[in-house]
């Protein structure tokens, strides 16, 4: 197999589509380098003293794991000095992180969930990093949270790294989705899947079934039909998988087809769903759409949602197009 590195791939994409300005390419490479460092820490586990809680809480009131904090620091430090960014925002930080004055300010803004699937860290199950890149608004002064309030359709790049049996980087800059595997000996990202496309026909779904009694009627209806199997309205048996790490669940769906759901439920109307629009839903929605799939919040295309705050949560339905369309149509019938 001819090895194509991440750098070579980005340079070739730039030539082909003229869609990756040099600044953006460098920014993506810095993020990828940070993911390599995170992967190294993840791989050390107890030997690197990175397991367990950090005795701090994030803005959502969730207890932070040591690795949440370490990964956040790695991404901040790697991206501060390159001159490509105006500001960053992270699931683990209350407010935005403008680039310090000692460094030049660039024209992009980076958002990330540094370590997704935190509950899996201490049990050696796949976790990941999710990121999204926005353009800073024209003529922007000192960056504010308002500058980040752009719909997901404005993203210029999105990706995730999955730290599993292999470390992989899945990336889109708006011209399809490509996957790179980390060559641990060489320390380089090697292109291993070109133009990933989500299979249309599916027999798999991913949802946390323990919340079933709290779901709203459209989700109850959709999942009940899946569970009814070959004698039900769908006339086939479906299988269920839930890794509790969005990165790993979405990665499986990108490869095998299926639908991932984290719906809102009846418990708390002020917290619609668990996942965050800016750090999780938007980048994953861009990747999934670029791979021929779909992503909605049950009613609206995720990439069309106008954000109103940095840490906003949304219900998420994403994956194979026809499945997302069906569960979305059940929500529409409900009104
Ligand atoms: P995190 O960013 O704090 O790790 O939370 C997000 C994760 C997702 O990766 C995953 O899909 C979901 O939370 C799992 O939730 P649950 O514990 O309800 O199964
Ligand atoms: Mg997360």
Automatic annotation (TrEMBL):
Gene3D superfamilies according to UniProt: 3.40.190.80, Fructose-1,6-Bisphosphatase, subunit A, domain 1
Signal peptide: none
EC numbers, comma separated: 3.1.3.11
Primary location group: cytoplasm
Catalysed reaction equations from the record: beta-D-fructose 1,6-bisphosphate + H2O = beta-D-fructose 6-phosphate + phosphate
UniProt xrefs under SUPFAM superfamilies: Carbohydrate phosphatase
UniProt-annotated binding residues for substrate: 116-119, 208, 274
Annotated keywords: Carbohydrate metabolism, Cytoplasm, Hydrolase, Magnesium, Metal-binding
InterPro entries linked: FBPase_C_dom (IPR044015), FBPase_class-1 (IPR000146), FBPase_N (IPR033391), FBPtase (IPR028343)
Entries under PANTHER family matching the protein: FRUCTOSE-1,6-BISPHOSPHATASE-RELATED (PTHR11556), SEDOHEPTULOSE-1,7-BISPHOSPHATASE, CHLOROPLASTIC (PTHR11556:SF35)
Protein name: Fructose-1,6-bisphosphatase class 1
Organism of origin: Massilia eurypsychrophila
Gene that encodes it: fbp
